[in-house]
Specification:
This protein is α/β, with parallel strands linked by helices. It has twelve helices and twelve strands.
């Protein structure tokens, strides 16, 4: 072999050795580079052109970059829950509780609420329980004179809340100082007649002697609205030879027993004492209200609902459809939040005391407490119902 060929061979081997060393170093740098890329699992193909004191060599390097997991952000801590409102003993000195007619489920439950206040909230609060009515109770709360807590007809309170826009119109100015606490149970309007009476439906009351209830009570208001929805006014009854006598339940019972009345209306829980007392003399019936009439009443005031009068509610009564609404508990808007929170809590936790005076309060259950309420909840009541999960 000639000396020229030996030189060429040495140069060639030196060239190849330099290339291998350079490729190893460069390849390691490339691998380190791609390993540092952001998280994204992918195959990256890179064409690298390298010149090492000789011919140009093209090298293809394939690198798989394994993703680096992104750091999981720390969760933002939830704000601490607002503590329950508090009541300071002595903050309230007097409480007046307005109920309903004597002997009814409202009136009998008034002393129970008074006892709960003194036993669980403040023994030094002087509680006074007074009779009242669905309409007049709400009016008294708005005035804020000798009225703090009251049983409620949601039909009446909802109408008064709207003022002159309320239907039926019960006031010119909105009663915006009313606040709701809860709903107790549904009530039924009951127009009762003797079982053997020729009066079979509401229009048959034309020319008859009726007691629609006591003015200022939701029963009389509903009697008037039902009749008017049928196209009958009190004057129409009188012009047809009948009479309209307004009075409380004892007057209606006496009128039926003495033969001075042909029909009387009551509204409330079932059974009611006046119905039981009249039916003790002879069987009675409840006049049905047509579905289309109830639908019109509901459009007038959403508080009105269709409801069944069960068979044998009183002696002689058959199952019929009538109109009803929800009865509840309300208060003045300016009563302390802590007081109403504690009242709502202890009223709910001791509801069996209400059941003990009238079985209608068995309906005071989780699915009932917020039904049909047309006015804002008092913040204290709202806090408690949210706290126990009944208000979302």
């Amino acid at each position: 072999m000639s000396s020229e060929k030996k030189v060429d061979r040495r140069a060639y081997l030196k060239y190849i050795g330099s290339f291998i060393i350079g490729a190893v170093i460069f390849g390691g740098s490339i691998a380190a580079y791609y390993a540092s890329l952001p998280a994204a699992k992918e195959v990256i193909t890179k064409t690298i052109t390298t010149t090492i004191s000789g011919p140009t060599i093209t090298q293809t390097v394939t690198v798989t970059a394994t993703p680096t997991p992104s750091p999981t952000p720390s969760p933002t801590p939830s704000p601490a829950p607002k503590p329950p409102p508090t009541y300071v003993p002595g903050e309230i000195k007097y409480i007046t509780i307005l109920t309903g007619g004597v002997g009814g489920a409202w009136h009998m439950a008034g002393p129970v609420v008074a006892k709960i206040i003194n036993e669980f909230i403040d023994p030094n609060i002087s509680c006074k329980v007074l009779p009242g009515g669905g309409v007049e109770n709400a009016i008294a709360l708005q005035k804020g004179v000798d009225a703090d807590l009251a049983w409620a007809s949601w039909v009446a309170s909802g109408s008064l809340w709207k003022g002159k826009e309320g239907k039926p119109k019960l006031a010119d100015e909105p009663h915006n100082k009313l606040r709701a606490i809860c709903t107790f149970y549904p009530a039924r309007w009951q127009m009762l007649v003797w079982a053997d009476s020729p009066i079979r439906k509401i229009p048959d009351l034309l020319g008859k002697r009726i007691n629609p209830g006591r003015p200022g009570f939701i029963g009389e208001l509903t009697s008037r609205l039902v009749l008017e929805t049928y196209g009958i006014t009190y004057d129409d009854i009188k012009k047809a030879g009948g009479s309209v006598t307004f009075g409380d339940y004892p007057d209606a019972v006496a009128g039926m027993k003495d033969g001075l009345l042909d029909a009387f209306a009551i509204m409330g829980s079932i059974p009611m004492a006046p119905g039981i007392e009249v039916a003790a003399k002879a069987p009675i019936r409840c006049l049905p209200v047509d579905p289309e009439i109830i639908d019109k009443l509901n459009k007038l005031n959403p508080g009105y609902i269709p409801i069944i009068m069960p068979k044998d509610t009183y002696r002689g009564v058959e199952e019929v459809l009538t109109v009803g609404e929800y009865y509840g508990f309300q208060c003045r808007a300016d009563l302390p939040e802590g007081f109403i929170y504690r009242l709502t809590k202890h009223l709910w936790e001791n509801r069996e005391r209400l059941v003990a005076i009238s079985p209608i309060y068995k309906l005071f259950q989780p699915d009932m407490v917020l039904k049909g309420i047309p006015i804002p909840l008092h913040p204290g009541a709202e806090y408690y119902w949210r706290e126990i999960g009944l208000l979302k």
